[in-house]
């Protein structure tokens, strides 16, 4: 399969300057990290606040360029200035705060913002705006003001705004952190649907483990490095390690792991209630 | 509370004025405002009044919404009336009380100045009530476009207006929230003298500014991520176009100007 | 401190086109020292309700009594009420404004007109309660991490020594570790003394793990009120209101449907462990199958 995103030896440092303009403190947000994402994959990146996951996300969209190492999106090196706009068109980004990424006072005007920046013809923009709003099921709100929408709806408008640029990949940077449970579900379902039906590569950054269960691969970050990665089953069965770096696992996975240690014959890699029911009924 | 303040009070409806191109509405509104300085005497103001009534009817906006705009500047109008009433010399003295003297010219100037202000405010309210903020911004950008050659930042002005309009309600809501949070900690925004009142605003203003900067940062990043790089090479989804409605409106305004001009010469 | 709410109604923007009925005939009695979880979908009226309790909003009809006293009666002072009822808003770190952690936490006590010594002892105590040491006092609140900022903000309310503490989603936006730490601290604050705590949360797991009583609101009305075990039994009812139950409760329901039900009502991981152990009996030799680690 085609490689969508490749990063090697990535390092990113934030420099903190003192009043005299000298570098006072260097913070390594990303500390030697390799990343490979193939076309059409759904990748979840888990990590506690400050683990470097948002910094990594901004590298994929060329909002940040690595201090060391390199990152390529669809073969384009993010360090080359000439590639920046093409990369941003191909790798769209949805941010955490739904309010702070909607620019216009009317939903459809906001969705049009991206293609307008790309210089797309008006008729084509119209078509893309309508299609994108339909894809996130917000068509009926096209002429509404974003202020009256719920958090989940606002995030879907933001997703439509990215879709209208016809990206091949969307990076979601903690899109559900500020939402209520129903808003979280709306956004997660939309991301899954775009991945499954439209073939868009999705990178979902989150600290809700239940959102990572559907991913093809889960990457767990800690202190700017990849702590471990694998399928959701592989990752969540490492309950102790997950807890040690401040993350959670689904309740059923935790129970299975603990019962297993007590001597019960449980598979430790179960993630869902159905799997747990199966395991218990088998032992009964 | 603070959320009750309505800004850019667009009144959605389907009317003659709503269907006009924003550019012609802006230009014609300015023409009307300038015409008020040409109007002379009661007949002149009468014509302007008739024109306004016609415009209000053509906007399908209930007249009380126009009056809302007046309420906000009521004090200014009152002040203008008083200054003109007492400080204009000339003409027969109608009334005197101590140093205060009301003359006939004074009374006339006061009344006409007040009318001019009221007409001006109602006229511009018709523009903002019938034009959504976004199309108003589009109109301003389009009208300023030719001036870009002489370094007028047309696109930037329009973008700033759009963002301001989008964030005013958000910041109002935020102000309300911070105020409540500080009140829950015993802050008092109401009592005390001027100095104390100003001091009491610090716990409100500091968080508000910090949050505005944070939002600005986020928004700039989001705009960059969506390939924003200024006005150059940008297209627009909605193209503005003049229609028959705009021609009709222009003709009506021309007729109004003619009537005003004739009256001025005739009197 | 007890709270009594009788026939409370509240409408936003009465007499305008934006009129919205936020609370409808709310009746509640909360006893001193209770730990309450307040749940409800966004727009269910829970935020409006908590603002009513400390007098930030005035009822359209009905009354609120704090320790028997009507908070909107003539003799009552809203300023006093707000000292008794501490309200921590959602994302409370957004209200920090002082140059140092110490000064910010001292804002509430200073507004109460306390003596310098009293303010000092309250600030130190409040910071200690949220797990921030003395070395943090002179730090600028804006240089702290998200979780620390939130603790400072909570300390700012605790320093007023409220008898009732209301927290509106105190863990929103925090990672699992930060969430557990804050909830642990709230639990300890409740454990000491007789403070009444009302926790507004969207997380069924957090509610199940901490509170003694759950109040569920929907469309401005109180729909359910009872201990977690009772409330979480009504899965369909809760789901119809856009809410849910903890994952282990879903597990118990699914097992019941399969004919191997667990004993009692299960709402926490510990309860589920105990119930599964008693269902399966002591661990026997492996029967094979499954993945071994």
UniProtKB/TrEMBL annotation, chain A:
Lipid bilayer topology: Peripheral membrane protein
Q: Which InterPro entries match?
A: AAA+_ATPase, ABC_transporter-like_ATP-bd, ABC_transporter-like_CS, ABC_transpr_CbiO/EcfA_su, ECF_ABC_transporter_ATP-bd, EcfA_1, P-loop_NTPase
Q: Which SMART domains match?
A: AAA (SM00382)
Q: What is its subcellular localisation?
A: Cell membrane
- Gene Ontology molecular-function annotations: ATP binding; ATP hydrolysis activity; ATPase-coupled transmembrane transporter activity
Cite the Gene3D superfamilies for this sequence: P-loop containing nucleotide triphosphate hydrolases
List cellular component terms (GO). Answer: ATP-binding cassette (ABC) transporter complex
Keyword Electron transport, does the record have it?
no
Superkingdom of origin: Bacteria
Q: Where is the ABC transporter domain?
A: 15-248
Q: Which ranges does the record mark as transmembrane?
A: none
Q: Which UniProt keywords apply?
A: ATP-binding, Cell membrane, Membrane, Nucleotide-binding, Translocase, Transport
Q: Which family does it belong to?
A: Belongs to the ABC transporter superfamily.
> What name does UniProt use for this protein?
Energy-coupling factor transporter ATPase
Q: Which organism is it from?
A: Anaerotalea alkaliphila
Q: Lineage in the entry? A: Bacteria, Bacillati, Bacillota, Clostridia, Eubacteriales
Automatic annotation (TrEMBL), chain B:
Membrane spanning stretches = 26-52, 72-99, 111-134, 154-172, 245-264
Among its keywords, does the record have Cell membrane? yes
Could you tell me the membrane topology recorded for this protein? Multi-pass membrane protein
- Sorted alphabetically, which keywords does the UniProt record give? Cell membrane, Membrane, Transmembrane, Transmembrane helix, Transport
InterPro entries, A to Z: ABC/ECF_trnsptr_transmembrane, ECF_transporter_component, EcfT
Where it mainly occurs, coarsely classed, is: membrane
| Location within or outside the cell | Cell membrane
UniProt cross-references to Pfam families, sorted A to Z: CbiQ (PF02361)
Tell me one GO molecular function of this protein. transmembrane transporter activity
- One cellular component (GO) term of this entry: plasma membrane
Q: Which domain of life is it from?
A: Bacteria
Q: How does it assemble?
A: Forms a stable energy-coupling factor (ECF) transporter complex composed of 2 membrane-embedded substrate-binding proteins (S component), 2 ATP-binding proteins (A component) and 2 transmembrane proteins (T component).
Q: What name is this protein filed under?
A: Energy-coupling factor transporter transmembrane protein EcfT
Originating organism:
Anaerotalea alkaliphila
Query: Taxonomic classification, please?
Result: Bacteria, Bacillati, Bacillota, Clostridia, Eubacteriales
Automatic annotation (TrEMBL), chain C:
Where does the ABC transporter domain lie? 3-244
Could you tell me the superkingdom of the organism this chain comes from? Bacteria
For membrane topology, the record states: Peripheral membrane protein
Xref: CDD domains? ABC_cobalt_CbiO_domain1
Note one Pfam family from the annotation: ABC_tran
The answer to keyword Transferase applying to this record is no
Concerning InterPro entries, the annotation shows: AAA+_ATPase, ABC_transporter-like_ATP-bd, ABC_transporter-like_CS, ABC_transpr_CbiO/EcfA_su, ECF_ABC_transporter_ATP-bd, EcfA2, P-loop_NTPase
A single cellular component GO annotation: ATP-binding cassette (ABC) transporter complex
Q: Does the keyword Phosphoprotein apply?
A: no
- Which function does this protein serve? ATP-binding (A) component of a common energy-coupling factor (ECF) ABC-transporter complex.
Q: What's the protein called, per UniProt?
A: Energy-coupling factor transporter ATP-binding protein EcfA2
Provenance organism: Anaerotalea alkaliphila
